[in-house]
Amino acid sequence: MLDVLIGIIVVAILIYVGIVLYQRYLLKQITDLQNKKSDLMDLPVASELDEVGNLNLAGSSLEEYQNLQDDYRNVKNNKFPEIDELAESGQQNVNDMKIFDARSDVSGIKDAIQVIQSESDRIQAALDQIKQENEDQQNEVKVLRHKYQTLRKTLLAKNMTYGPSIDMLNDSLERLENAFENFAKTVESGDHKKAESQLQQLQSSTKVLEDQLEAIPELYIQLNEDFPGQLDEIKNGYTQLINHNYAFVDDEIPNDIEDISQKIKENIDTLSNLRLDAVKGNNDTIASRIDNLYDLMQTEIDARTEVDGGFQTIAEYIEHAEKQSHTLLIEIDRLGQSYVLNGNEDGQAHDLETKLQDIRNEHDQDAEAITNQPVVYSEILQRMHDENDQLDEIESKQTAINESIQKLIEEEKDSRRTLHQFDLEIHEIKRHIENLNLPGIPASYMDYFFVVSDEIEKLSSNMNQVKIDMKQIDQQLGMIDKDMQSLAKKTTELTDNAALSEQIIQYTNRYRHSNETVDNASKRAQKLFDEDHDYAQSLSVISRALESVEPGMVDQLTDSYQKQKNTQY
């Protein structure tokens, strides 16, 4: 029981000590917050308000200042006393052990101090801005006054460089100076908000005037000096070219010069009205048109240089092509007496000659024009280029035609050599067949042999004509070549069938007395050989019979025959 009592006493003591310590903490907070209030009361906001109040503010600036005064007065008359009341209440509550009430008082003091701090900062910033606006606008008054004085001096000193725009520039500057005086009065009156709006308009208008003063001299120099000087140069150059027999396509140069001169005058009027964007665009157009006139004349000058240097060269090229054409026609006529010309070479050559005549006529007309009258040299130069291209094409075609007809001679030689070779081959085949000493030759083979022989004879006859058709001869040669290959194959088959049939019949004689089937086959094969001259069938009959009694022997005899064979067929 005693232990419990002691524990209760200890707890009570601890609680009391904690309360005392927390009371001291709250009292210290209240003291610190009162010190902070004192610091806030020492802020220079009040003196700043007095300083700004001496600036003779007006209008919206004055209204803003008065609002700031009211806001500060509200803080001073309400918030500071509120802090004192809360501090006194908090101290009393601490002493009366009203801890929660005291803590609430401390929180209220903090909130009030926060409001005072925030309002003081806002009011101070607004006052600083008013002072800065006043200082900036006072400085801007000085800057603008000096700037307008400088602009006025510039207009007086350089009025000639602005041409007809000088009057409107002076008017613009005068309007700006009047607007500036209104701005200066507004600044002096202290209505900074109104002055700021006036200042922005002044700065914008002043920038426009400055840009105009910078841009106009160059534009006016173009209109008053550069363009007229260039037009005079073009006039003189044009006159000299005309006097030297130059001409121009749809010659509008004099009219263009007159029209451009009028455009220059009109653009000077536009410049006097300060429509600088329009002036710049018009100047660009005028400059482009003047450049076009320069280019037009330079084109003719350059063209004449090329014409003078190359006209005779084209004439010589035409003469060369004409000689080539004459030689080609003679060669075509000569070879046309011996060959059929299937490529219409004669017609092509005459077409080229006609084109050459047209080129010759055109070139002669240009030569006469150059000698007797003004000419557009660029057109003549273009025709010279076209003529050169046509002559290149004509020469290429002449070469192709000549190569084509010259081939006929070589083709004839090659064809005669081939024909001679075919003739040798068919005679060799004939001798080979005769040397076989066969009892007879199959009618089908002989028919084919005579067909090929007739083809060779016909080809020989065609090649001995006064005028030969090499295209037809080439076709005949191709057909004969195929037929000769076929005849050689048939000859080989005839030779092989006859030789093998005879060998196998002799070989099978050993079985005739012992094998009736072989005997009958041998008799039949011999008849086909001697009487029917069907050597292929004879070989087939006797081969089947031998295979029946001695398999594989036919292949052995065939291989042996092929190895011993010493003829082509």
From TrEMBL:
Annotated membrane topology: Single-pass membrane protein
A cellular component term, taken from the record's GO annotations: plasma membrane
Ranges facing Cytoplasmic side: 23-569
Coiled coil: 113-212, 349-411
UniProt superkingdom: Bacteria
Main location: membrane
Record key words, sorted: Cell cycle, Cell division, Cell membrane, Coiled coil, Membrane, Septation, Transmembrane, Transmembrane helix
Regions of this protein lying in the Extracellular compartment: 1-3
InterPro entries named among the record's database cross-references: EzrA (IPR010379)
Residues annotated as transmembrane: 6-27
Localization per record: Cell membrane
Function summary: Negative regulator of FtsZ ring formation; modulates the frequency and position of FtsZ ring formation. Inhibits FtsZ ring formation at polar sites. Interacts either with FtsZ or with one of its binding partners to promote depolymerization.
HAMAP family: EzrA (MF_00728)
Descriptive protein name: Septation ring formation regulator EzrA
Organism whose genome encodes this protein: Pediococcus ethanolidurans
Gene giving rise to this polypeptide: ezrA
